[in-house]
What does this fold into?
Amino acid sequence: MAIPKIVAGVVFNIAFYALLLFLPAGTLHWWRAWVFLGVTALVMVTAIYSILPDNAGLFSERARGIIQKGQPLWDRMLVILLVISFVGQILFIPLDVFRFHLAPKTSGLISFFGLALYVGGWWIITLTMKVNPFAVPVVRLQRERHQRVIDTGVYAVVRHPMYSGFIPMVIGPALWLGSYTAAVLAIVPIAVLAVRSVFEEQFLKRKLQGYDGYREKVRYRLIPFLW
It folds into this structure.
């Protein structure tokens, strides 16, 4: 994928986040949101330049979208549900902070912890994409790319490290921006991903040679020593 397209993707993501935050807030005077957008831009650019030398082709594959040929119907449904629940959770943050006030705002320490969670989630996702050239946003067997089992790096710790990184990445912004309630609501997209991981493993067990043995080798699905 050409660099201008990658840059355009970063700009689009930042603009999309900005729309989800500032429009419901009804104001641009929200310094925490501006910091969040700046951090997002920084971690995205860092991730891209970290991944490019190892997996340049991965960006082209990920740009194909969340609905693709060969993708099972159950995954199409779960991906759509994941996007809706994730967008809804982000939208709820400014609504709670500026309008609903369902709980006290997070303290300074908790807020910075949330920002650290967000950056940590991105770091895990970056490590995932560095080692796995098949980390596309849909579940399908990539025969044309000679997909194989990846069992090194973060995949030696959990079987779905990208999903593991998503957990702090979705909880963190709510805490940084001041909404305990939105942080609790993060359980919805996290639960969707957990369900998806179960279906995905059954799919890969049937379709991808060596995956059953990998499951026996790496015991934990999302959270080390827990699940």
